[in-house]
Write a structure and sequence with these properties.
13 helices; Outer membrane efflux proteins (OEP); two-stranded parallel ribbon
């Protein structure tokens, strides 16, 4: 029994030594944190934590409604939830690979006991522990940590992509709402024109062709309103899907309330190189690529260590019974029936060098692939930033052209058509054409505003951090320009017309953007009165 206790003690010492060796392999480990590496811990390899990019971008959203919708998307998107679960699972891999292999216990019961001088051997118990080359455990742990960091960065990249997509859909819905309001206002005007044209035709002043054309135009506008409603429902369903909402769930509140104003002042500009530098610091895809590259480097180092040997140590305890034969009973030998304790040791000889060399070549190619993947991500980001840098000024110029020039020209043309229609020089078709130009210009201006907002959202997504709109290569938009009495002024990027009663135009007064969509504005001089005056004159 004394030898059995000694063997058990040696076995425990063996396991404790193995555990201490494994713990020593963790002295140099990777620490994932938000701040740069600390000089007080030179033995710790510090990496940048990619988490928080989407939260910073979310906190920079000024519109409360949009911010609430984006928060719901981040919280409820099932793809993000699945990716987060995979990232959390990967974080539990490092403790597994850094541990030593489990020890092996074996028991041998002799059916035909070997006879020895001190007695027959009945039972043998063996306990062995494999000991890889120490730095191999540390490298396996580093590989697992880099892989977990890459998955974590991929989760953040997915969150950033969902935010950008939700912002795009939000502004598309806002655009459709604005266009719907314009079309409803257009329908109200057409109904009024159609009523006036019928009145003129009844008195013999107008022609039936104008009435028929106005009725056809009203039908076309009603069809466009149905199409706008369908397109809006599709965009709303896409946002609900991004938030993981099922058809029976409570829908998200998607009421943008209009399109945003562009920046009115150019505080500064950001050079493309500066934007690319921001993207390199903030884009989680680059953090994922960096982690993948580091993992590939560690994998190559581990493959090169395949030429180093691994060891095995063990302990053997053999149970020996006293001799039962006549000579052994008459003259028992020294140490008769005493158990045997043995210590084992082994080494794995890396003999097949071609296999090891192939593993090193494979790891080197994987490192090259990771390097090229990172370069490809940077090239893609730079290309998209160049595209945005070229597209954003054009969108801004188009918006300024519509709101500062074309809308004013369309209004002036409409006023001229109104005067001609009241005097009888122009027909209802001429007035309708002028209305067409005005409403189409307003829709085009709304499209430019939506494209501007979407481009800024894409820019935020490309650099991975909120960027002040003034850094988007834009000149300032002129504001509050004075016009002659009865002409609109550009206030905050919107055309504001005189209040009802300030000018008697012969048509309903207009306000941009329209208020009370679907409600007919009051007639205050109106086409009806002009028609009656024409009838009385006849």
């Amino acid at each position: 029994m004394e030898k059995l206790a000694t063997s058990l003690a040696l076995g425990f010492l063996l396991l404790a030594a193995g555990r201490g060796i494994a713990q020593g392999a963790q002295d140099q480990k990777i620490q994932i944190q938000d701040t740069p590496e600390s000089p007080e811990s030179p033995q710790t390899e510090t990496v940048q934590d990619p988490r928080g990019v989407s939260e910073r971008l979310l906190s920079g959203i000024a519109e409360p409604g949009l911010r609430q919708v984006l928060a719901e998307v981040l919280a409820g998107n099932p793809e993000i939830a699945a990716a987060e679960a995979r990232a959390r699972a990967a974080e539990h891999r490092a403790p597994q690979v850094r541990a030593l292999p489990d020890p092996t216990a074996a028991v041998t019961a002799f059916v035909s006991s070997p006879e020895t001088r001190v007695g027959p051997q009945r039972l043998a118990v063996t306990l062995s522990q494999a000991l890889p080359w120490l730095s191999k455990l540390a490298d396996r742990e580093r590989m697992a940590v880099w892989e977990a960091l890459a998955l974590r960065a991929e989760v953040e990249a997915m969150r950033l992509g969902k935010l950008t997509e939700a912002r795009r859909l939000w502004w598309e819905i806002a655009f459709l709402d604005v266009v719907t309001g314009i079309q409803r206002e257009k329908r109200v005007h057409l109904l009024q024109h159609e009523e006036a044209a019928r009145a003129r035709y009844a008195t013999g002043v107008g022609e039936s062709q104008g009435v028929v054309k106005l009725q056809a135009e009203i039908t076309r506008v009603e069809a466009e309103l149905l199409d706008l409603e369908t397109r809006r429902a599709t965009r709303v369903a896409q946002v609900q899907g991004l938030a993981g909402r099922l058809p029976g769930d409570e829908p998200l509140p998607l009421e943008p309330g209009g399109l945003p104003d562009p920046p009115t002042e150019a505080v500064g500009t950001a050079e493309p190189k500066a934007l690319l530098s921001l993207a390199e610091r903030h884009r989680p895809e680059i953090a994922a690529a960096d982690a993948g590259l580091e993992r590939a480097r560690v994998a190559r180092r581990l493959a090169e260590k395949g030429k180093l040997p691994d060891f095995t140590v063990g302990l053997t305890y053999t149970l020996v019974e006293p001799r039962s034969d006549l000579p052994g009973r008459l003259n028992p030998p020294d140490r008769n029936g005493e158990d045997v304790v043995g210590i084992q040791g082994g080494v794995r000889v890396p003999l097949w060098r071609e296999r090891i060399a192939a593993g090193v070549r494979e790891a080197a190619e994987m490192e090259t692939a990771a390097t090229e993947a990172r370069r490809g991500i940077l090239v893609g980001i730079e290309r998209r930033l160049d595209d945005l840098g070229a597209r954003l000024p054009l969108v801004r110029k188009r918006l300024a052209l519509f709101e500062e020039v074309l809308l004013l020209q369309a209004e002036e043309a409409l006023r001229s058509a109104e005067a001609g229609y009241v005097s009888g020089r122009f027909s209802a078709l001429d007035l309708l054409d002028a209305e067409h130009v005005l409403f189409d210009t307003r829709i085009a201006a709304a499209r430019a505003r939506a494209d501007h907002a979407i481009a800024l959202a894409e820019l935020d997504g490309e650099i991975g951090t909120p960027l002040h709109p003034s850094q988007a290569f834009f000149p300032p938009l002129k504001k509050g320009r004075a016009h002659a009495k009865g002409e609109p002024t550009n206030v905050g990027g919107q055309l504001a017309w005189p209040r009802a009663g300030e000018r008697c135009s012969g048509l309903p007064s207009r306000a941009f953007p329209p208020t009370g969509w679907g409600q007919a504005p009051p007639l205050h001089c109106g086409v009806h009165e002009a028609s009656r005056r024409g009838a009385d004159h006849e």
